[in-house]
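Self-study notes.
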Amino acid sequence: MNANINIQGSLPQLTEQNLSELEQRTNIKLPEQYRNFLLKHNGGIPSPNRFKTLDGKVESMISNFLPIAAIEDDNLLEEIQGITQAELIPENLIPIATEPGDDRLVLSVGGSDYGKIYYWAWEEEPKRNHKPSYKYIRLVANSFDELLALLY
């Protein structure tokens, strides 16, 4: 993890049981680096928070990492149910962070790209005849720890 990164506004600390319950409820297996982050920081706002996609075409910032919590908006379970399970993105991707334009950083939790982090420009996607694909998704980092190390 970026030694200079600071996470503020995290919610109450999670336990392994909290993570296991989320995984069972959503039928996913979280990558170890992301699990460790959630155990240490249940969501929160990173500083520094800027990132670029690896192709250099998008530069943005993380508004907040999604916590596991019984809060009304921007919580991990709600995002998984409302975005991944609603088939807005490929089923192996889950939202893990928001950005100011309401787009998302998503994490692969299955397949050949397991553990990779992407920027999903959901506002660019057509609303009609939508089929989940990687068309509006750009690679940001090859792992969660790499994402944190790349923040500036």
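Second protein, same conventions, sequence then structure:
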Amino acid sequence: MGYKVFLHQGDELSLKTRVVRGEAWVDEGGLHIKGPGEILVPRADLRSAEIFRLHGLGRVIRVEHANGRLFLSVVRLMIGQFAIINFFKTGALQADLVRLLSPNR
């Protein structure tokens, strides 16, 4: 299942950070993101997937992996840098990532 997302690769995310849009999905291979470029975070490289509230405005997932940090959130609508975040789908994407991290899998 694919999710429409905004994403940012870097160490921190703020309201002034420029984000890009894309489509993300999770499968046995890892986290896939198709946007301005193709991003693959292999399952073995995933370290954590934590959810937090960005300035009380919406849920954002912080993905730690072997090559850095990635922020992403599922969006309902995105016009330029303005995004309406899908609260429940962002939680579902984070749950998919946590299941991928589970050693019992």
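Instructor comment on the second fold: The chain has one domain: 1-12+43-105.
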